Amino acid sequence: MALKSPVDFAGSITSGQKDPCCFGVPGCNPRCVRYNKKSRTCRLVTRAISVDRPQLDFSNSDWKKQFQEDFDSRFSLPHLKDVIDVEPRPTTFSLKSRTPLENVNGSMQGSWNGYVNDDDRALLKVIKFASPTSAGADCIDPDCSWVEQWVHRAGPRKQIYFEPQYVKAGIVTCGGLCPGLNDVIRQIVLTLEKYGVKNIVGIQHGFRGFFEDHLAEVPLNRQVVQNINLAGGSFLGVSRGGANISDIVDSIQARRLDMLFVLGGNGTHAGANLIHEECRKRKLKVSIVGVPKTIDNDILLMDKTFGFDTAVEAAQRAINSAYIEAHSAFHGIGLVKLMGRSSGFITMHASLSSGQVDICLIPEVPFTLDGPNGVLQHLEHLIETKGFALICVAEGAGQEHLQQSNATDASGNMILGDIGVHLHQKIKAHFKEIGVHSDVKYIDPTYMVRAVRANASDAILCTVLGQNAVHGAFAGFSGITTGICNTHNVYLPISEVIKSTRFVDPNSRMWHRCLTSTGQPDFH
């Protein structure tokens, strides 16, 4: 069966049982969407992370070759020369010159300038698993055979496909706020100027800026963006949703944009890919490059997205406050809800970083509230033995316990039930019912963690991503995004990273470390 992702395999599974449809599918992640308390069974939706895999016959000695050919085809970067006749020219980018290179001669091109060769590659996966039962195992075949999967290294090339002095570049920030947006905007502008681009504009308030007449372009240059990284938010503004893709491309043509840098998450990248495809249909010489932005850290194939580290750090203040409240009160219980619609990376990492969290609840791991193995029973144990407790829950966790509204926001995301409020009420009701005093303090720092300025770690990441986005556009690539894979900066086709959301793997070592830190049992 060739997988088309996101792939939903619906099935039923008893608590503690392995999902039968996951074997041999790397990145396969079962997610509970309906938990039956009486039978202790869970209706699963299993999502395949490695996608569009060819039908493989493992008895065929050439199956590895077939797999690699398919992989190389899928991860080949779309290029302007695929659809239009365009000739390269020597780059104007140099690490040895304060100004863009002009009239580049052969000797300058032959000297060291920090260029990346077009054939440079980085490994997408670096662990060779010995068995499918190894923690976090990501196997292609039942024997966990090693297959090299190479992706394109990011960076400046010797040859470029645009004349910088004639380029008009646009930058747009979409979706919600995220620490580091201004850092990326700033670095894109500075790098474009390093190439010699003088016409740089910002599109206000996301894709809305392409069709709202009163939202004028914002001219950008070094003087304008010099200090914008000192504040949180987005200098250009954000919004969710957008216009018809054809209308956006019409606007791109009318504005005579040659490059568009799109900062956003999965939904924004999906929109950017559609814009890229429409530009290809019209045979436009326009490079569309994405920069992955989400504090949820849920973009496929990437180690980390910008804003994540800052969000985890900002969450510490809420967790520490909840800990002090719980520790100081008689039978105190601190409850903190953090962002994470479908992925629990912030909650998991914040819990690990704190070291004080007793219970960590994430969307990828279903849990029961009542019964001998439930969260409430464990809370009783913590109050009896420690005298207080601290819970950290992701906003998308435990949705099976809440009534579903089926309503969606402007980006098409399902509006979630409030698991924080639900837990708060359930905990208070439970301890009242058993006649034990409790003092529950609920903290929801949702928007506080995303509106702050990027910390040092994210600022560095934003700088690198902004530079590489510009290098990718000048190299003639379009429909790509840039990110970190196994500590290396790479380019990936947008079409591959939007095929599914990245989830916490409940079998991963990182989740196991979190469980070791909290000491929580299996809530099934």
TrEMBL record:
One of the Pfam families matching this protein, by short name: PFK
Biological pathway: Carbohydrate degradation; glycolysis; D-glyceraldehyde 3-phosphate and glycerone phosphate from D-glucose: step 3/4
Residues holding substrate: 294-296, 339-341, 395, 447-450
Activity control summary: Allosterically activated by AMP.
Entry EC number(s): 2.7.1.11
Residues the record marks as active site: 296 (proton acceptor)
Chain positions of site Important for substrate specificity: 267
UniProt GO cellular component terms: cytoplasm
GO molecular function: 6-phosphofructokinase activity; ATP binding; metal ion binding
Residues involved in ATP binding: 176, 240-241, 265-268
Occurrences of domain Phosphofructokinase (ranges): 169-471
Compartments reported by the entry: Cytoplasm
Binding site residues for Mg(2+): 266
GO biological process, alphabetically ordered: fructose 6-phosphate metabolic process
Cofactor(s) this protein cannot do without: Mg(2+)
The keyword Transferase appears for this protein: yes
Tagged with keyword Transport: no
Family as reported in the entry's similarity comment: Belongs to the phosphofructokinase type A (PFKA) family. PPi-dependent PFK group II subfamily. Atypical ATP-dependent clade 'X' sub-subfamily.
Subunit structure, as described in the record: Homotetramer.
Entry-linked HAMAP family: Phosphofructokinase_II_X (MF_01981)
Name of the molecule in the record: ATP-dependent 6-phosphofructokinase
Organism of provenance: Oryza sativa subsp. indica
Gene that encodes it: PFK
